[in-house]
Amino acid sequence: MFQYDFMQRALIAAVLVGITAPAVGIYLVQRRQALMGDGIGHVALTGVGLGFVFQTSPVWMAVVVCIAGAIVMELVRSRGNQRGDIALAMLFYGGMACGKLLVSMSAQTGNGSLESYLWGSILTVSPEDLTVIAVLAAIVIAVTFGLRRQLFAICQDEEFARVTGIPVRLLNLLLAVMAAVTVTVAMRVVGLLLVSALMVVPVAAAQQLTRSFAATQAAAVGLGVTVAVLGVAGSFEADVPSGPAIVLLAIAAFAAFATIATPLARRRHRGSPESGPAVCDVVLPEQTDPRRTEDPAATRGLAQ
């Protein structure tokens, strides 16, 4: 299969998506926002529809719409409004309905053109699509790994991160934008309806066996690349859609990891009776905590 140009592009795209999706997904899992990617995928359909209507690149239009939708989602979440869930539901379903309507109004009518974005069509990735995927993936990888300490801090405890001087609001918006970009990167590989699975399942599988954030991130990325490449190769040999094949392989890996996790944990416990829970190996940026004081006398006075 390596003799075909379209398969070479498909495998390169699969590797890029296998890296970026878990790299962003691990932060969403830490924040208990595992389904955020699914919501952004609904909104991205409007961008695809706009691309069809204006006869431009659906990927770039989806990037713009997804970023706007992700920012709105983050603002609704940060305000903690009790009606936020309703607002987000309207955003998700409205984005999907608007996308379908725009596609039906465009010159590129037909279920085939739409299904390639809903379920993925990695074998039809063009050289232009691969260039876009590579550029966006490079941005996501640079942010998620370069700002790993800061992003980990805001995902664990926003109040502590804010006290230590980390720009929480800015990083929250940046993480939402990276999730939006990842959805558009992965939509040609696994489809908008399944993109959230590739962001979440490899992370959940890696958590079964790892005990630190760095190890979980590395294992999730490795598993994401593995299932993406095997899914593409298997779909080529079996003549089945690549998106569902990749997701089913990821779920199978999760089931396998969960099966061996329990006896492995028991063995670790017997080997190290005093071992505690999983530890964080991410060193936070050194900042001055304003609640602390350097005056010993003042400290004794507070103690009294």
TrEMBL record:
The source's domain of life comes to Bacteria
Looking up InterPro entries in the UniProt record yields:
ABC_BtuC-like, ABC_TroCD
One BP annotation, GO: transmembrane transport
Q: Name one GO cellular component term.
A: ATP-binding cassette (ABC) transporter complex
A Pfam family annotated for this chain is: ABC-3
Q: Subcellular localization, per the record? A: Cell membrane; Membrane
Which family does this protein fall into? Belongs to the ABC-3 integral membrane protein family.
Instruction: Write the protein's name.
Output: Metal ABC transporter permease
